[in-house]
Design goal:
By secondary structure, this protein is mainly α. The chain has one domain. 46% of the residues lie in helices and 0% in strands. It is built from four helices and no strands. Helix 1 crosses helix 2 and helix 1 packs across helix 3. The protein is elongated.
Length: 85
């Protein structure tokens, strides 16, 4: 659910981190900045600086755990049907 007004501070950083994998346009919308991606990125960098976090790009907020889930190498193993569980 998108914020009704632009988020700031820790709440903005949390929202941005949660939506980072979707890209800056979606993250900006979800964090209450609508289509103003530039204002979102400026506010995010400011909030991060206030928290002692140095970032250059939204993608830097994607955690190692989130990145691990996006790796699709290997083989998927699953039953043939839900009844075989």
């Amino acid at each position: 659910m998108a914020a009704s007004s632009p988020l700031t501070g820790v709440v903005l950083v949390d929202c941005a981190k949660a939506n980072a994998k979707s890209g800056p346009a979606i993250a900006a919308r979800q964090c209450g900045y609508g289509d103003d991606v530039e204002a979102f990125q400026t506010a995010l960098k400011s909030a991060c600086t206030d928290m002692g976090i140095a970032i250059d790009d939204l993608s830097e907020l994607i955690s190692q755990e989130q990145q691990a889930w996006s790796v699709k190498d290997g083989m998927e193993v699953a039953p043939d049907s839900p009844g075989d569980l």
